Amino acid sequence: MPSPKNNSLSVFEQVYRLCAQVPRGKVATYGQIAALLGSPRAAQMVGWALHELPPDKLSKIPWQRVINREGRISTTCQEHTASLQAQLLKKEGVTVTMRQGNYFVDLKKYLWQP
DNA sequence: CTTATGACTTTCA
DNA sequence: CTGAAAGCCATAA
After folding, report:
1. Statement: the CB of A2 is under 7 Å from strand C
2. Which protein residues have a C-beta closer than 7 A to any atom of strand B?
3. What is the pLDDT of residues A36-74, one digit of tens each?
4. Would you say the C-beta of A6 is within 7 Å of strand C?
5. Considering only CA atoms, which of A79, A54, A82 is closest in space to residue A68?
């Protein structure tokens, strides 16, 4: 598991920073974040970074605004459940719909475009 | 240097 | 259309 305790500007830090830039009421995809970091194929890294998101950042970083390419909340993390993420999004005015037990967001409408 | 892992993505049967 | 498999990238051991 990654734990970049050093002050080096790791991918994690960059991911956190980009997430913080996502405006309220908008969402971004893992691939999008990865592309902004300069590595369009490192989407899984983004997911990983958010998975390891430390508690102190959890309250400051809008991690819920980052979803997969289909606009689906595909978190498997037990601590941060999809339902919780969906609630956070709804609280921001983002419409979250449930299909077959999965939460979906309308990317056409809410995708963040920098 | 080699392996393993992960809240992803794309391709193929 | 659906599900499985391989591909990709950064970090840890």
Report:
1. yes
2. A 29-31, 43-48, 50-51, 53, 63-64, 66, 68-70, 74-77, 80, 85
3. 999 999 999 999 999 988 888 999 999 999 999 999 998
4. no
5. A82
